[in-house]
Amino acid sequence: MRPIPVGAKGTFTLRVMPGHLANQFKDAILPQVFATPMMVTIMENAALNAIRDYLEPGESAVGTIVNIKHLAATPVGHQVTATAEVTKVDGRRIEFTVSARDEIEEIGTGTHERMVVDMARLDKRLAAKKRP
Question: Which residues are catalytic?
Answer without folding.
Answer: 36, 44, 70
